[in-house]
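Intended use. Records like the one below are meant for learning the mapping from a protein sequence to its folded structure. Do not use them to infer anything beyond what is encoded.
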Amino acid sequence: MTDILVERETQVLVESADGGVLVAHEREVEIVIEIPGTGVLLEQPQREILVLREEADGVLLEQPERSIDILTEGLQGPPGPRGLPGIAGAAFVTRTAGAVISANTVVYERDDLIFPLSYNDSNNVFAILGLAVSAGLPGAEISVQRGASVTDSAWSWVFGRVYLGQGGALTQVPPHDGYQVLIGFAASPDSINLSIQDPIEV
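Structure written out for the chain above:
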């Protein structure tokens, strides 16, 4: 009677006669043979080597492992919390500076350029565009905000309205000549909710 007790197969490197490296499968099988009538068991190990390929210059080329992931269709989870609302795209525009522009300056647009606007500039007051929120020299691209909220830690407003002043500056003192242009409302010391209104001549 013959029983196979152990069978093991591994990948090995063996050296060829010319010094090269061979990639081979080594298969070891340990066979137990019972001699009839004696009760003696004879262990007979066998070793087989199957050459797969020879590597150039004795360098073993590693082959990437292949894996298969079994995926199952999952169920949609519950919705996450609502994020904070962003500022609408229409609240911002980008324009080219026609003069030196400082941040938090009210500007008007003319001939595709923007300039600081004064409350008494009767030629351009109705061309008001918004509040510059970036600064730059002539030719620079300036971000202009036309709505939503603007915050600046350097401000110290009192609760109330904010108007256009001289040279594009913001003020909480309404002018008594020229034009009264409401820019927005200071809801806190460092922020203004923009709500630009049409100029009113005074």
